[in-house]
Design goal:
single chain; elongated; alpha+beta
């Protein structure tokens, strides 16, 4: 039988059996809608959990520690630039990003513009390479730059190299050593063995600097508590210790820090009386660009926790954006600031040793091999990476269970379809016998029955996919009416391109399986026997 004739016969048979078609499609629609809904939900949750909460495309390693029962003690290799070079040479690693924490106490205060009064808190902070922050396209982090990249040491001045903990004394300041421009950070030039901001005119320099002999140098200023914010140009301010203009240190925070504040802290404090009851709900637009003061080397907990190695200094910091790569509870600043501060307050060794490293993976299938390489080199996995692996395994298991439930429903529908076709064949026995007597072959009979099953499967698959997608949109709409909570996504669902043809394909395949035995039964009927019954 030619294809046009087969299509015509199948269409006619389906059209005159609408009631049976609807009953058969119902089970397929339920099963496929469940499949699409669960797969979309699993993929959406996976995007949030493995993309924001536990990031799966990176491996974070830390120095190995040993638990003696009385505490954990180090003993493995320390993390330094040589380790970063080792991992950078591995082809499956796209980039290596060291992380460094403050090794000294820091306190912060400010916020009067937001909270109607200044708040004081102990600051938790880490430093990270600006390249990792720039790779996070989830939000704007404009200005996450090292404005003091031409300094290797936080000193107001120097006379020779012996006064610099790191780098070399050039033009009266401690600067990073270099032999050419390639050894300096972005925007810096190598001049006389030191990295500097080169210029031809003052307009080439950032706020608070002037061009002098081809170098952007910080402007001198008169410090007073009342005029420190207005004594310098632009956003720069006057520092008490150096009496020079400085730009605020940029920092980013996690998206979830703001959500935790709005969802928990502001609500909890709002239930109390007094000033705390006026804690406002904040948005990203409200806080971006927010500045506060921090005192490095000084703790809120008293003198016992305040460093004595160097005199504390106060600086301004500015929120430049939000990032999934930022520390969850605390602030993240460019790592070179942390190096200089650690060198001042904890010594040179603290500025050369990292607390962890993030290995950006180019291919997620290579993660197990990279994890093994980390362990073979004598390092341990950070808890975040371990949790990411566990979360990934759990989500894969849940997704498989959801898919299995959906397939069971579709399988039950296939049994129903098989029973329906056996009934239809019995009702159309004389019709099929006449078709055979007029020259139709057994193959033609099979094709007609299987063609009807394919049509039912395709229609059921398309309708089921639409119902599943519609249910997902309804859930998202209802979720938007719910109060904000940490990690709440814009949508709980994500539908990969493959889910649509797969859903329809599963519906058609199960319908064909259900119709296979009825089709064979119909094809084996003898025309004479069918016509005489």
């Amino acid at each position: 039988m030619k294809l046009p004739a087969l299509v015509s016969l199948v269409s006619q048979n389906v059209s005159r059996s609408k009631k049976n078609l609807v009953m058969s499609c119902f089970g397929i629609i339920v099963g496929i809608s469940t499949f699409v809904f669960f797969i979309g939900l699993a993929e959406g949750v996976k995007n949030v959990v493995l993309g924001e909460v536990f990031i799966i495309d990176q491996v974070e390693l830390v120095p190995k520690t040993f638990d003696t029962g009385f505490g954990q003690f180090g003993g493995g290799r320390s993390l330094d630039d040589s380790v970063a070079d080792e991992f950078s040479s591995m082809g499956s690693i796209e980039a290596v990003y060291p992380k460094m924490k403050f090794t000294f106490p820091t306190r912060g205060y400010g916020g009067k513009s937001l909270f109607k009064k200044n708040l004081y808190a102990e600051i938790i902070a880490d430093g990270i390479d600006a390249g990792l922050i720039r790779s996070d396209a989830s939000d704007s982090q404009d200005g996450f730059l090292d404005h003091d990249g031409d300094l290797s040491d936080i000193r107001s001045s120097c006379r020779d190299d012996s006064q610099c903990r790191l780098g070399t004394c050039q033009f009266g300041r401690c600067r990073p050593r270099c032999e050419d421009n390639g050894q300096c950070n972005d925007g810096l030039s190598c001049v006389d063995g030191g990295c500097v901001f080169a210029c031809t005119k003052t307009a080439d320099c950032q706020a608070g600097r002037s061009c002098d002999d081809g170098i952007c140098k910080r402007d001198l200023c008169e410090y007073s508590e009342d005029t420190r914010l207005s004594a310098c140009a632009g956003e720069s301010y006057c520092t008490e210790d150096s009496r020079r203009c400085e730009m605020p240190i940029p920092f980013v925070v996690s998206h979830h820090l703001l959500e935790l504040y709005n969802g928990s802290l502001a609500t909890a404090l709002g239930g109390q009386g007094g000033t705390s009851a006026k804690m406002p709900t904040l948005s990203k637009a409200m806080v971006r660009g927010f500045q506060l003061n921090v005192t490095f080397g000084k703790s809120m907990l008293g003198r016992r926790f305040t460093t004595r190695r160097a005199k504390p200094i106060t600086r301004r910091i500015k929120l430049s954006g939000f990032s999934n790569k930022a520390i969850t509870l605390g602030i993240t600043i460019p790592i070179d600031y942390v190096k200089r501060l650690n060198a001042r307050f904890s010594g040179q060794e603290a500025a050369l040793t990292y607390h962890s490293m993030i290995l950006k993976v180019s291919d997620q299938t290579r993660v197990p091999a990279i994890v093994k390489a980390v362990e073979d080199k004598g390092f341990a996995l950070a808890e975040s990476t371990t949790r990411a692996e566990q979360a990934s395994n759990i989500l894969r298991t849940v997704e498989s269970v959801f898919a299995l439930i959906s397939l069971v429903i579709v399988g039950i529908a296939a049994v129903n379809i098989s029973q329906m076709f056996f009934m239809l064949i019995y009702q159309r026995k004389r019709e099929l016998g006449l078709f055979r007597a007029l020259g139709g072959s057994k193959r033609d009979v099979r094709l007609i029955i299987l063609g009807e099953a394919s049509t039912i499967g395709a229609l059921g698959g398309i309708l089921g996919a639409g119902v599943g997608y519609g249910a997902s949109r309804l859930i998202d709409f209802l979720a938007k009416q719910a109060p904000e909570f940490p990690y709440k996504p814009d949508t709980f669902f994500s539908f990969p391109v493959w889910v649509w043809p797969t859903a329809i394909g599963i519906a058609v395949v199960f319908c064909l399986i259900g119709a296979f035995f009825p089709a064979n039964t119909a094809a084996r009927q003898e025309p004479a026997a069918a016509l005489t019954e």
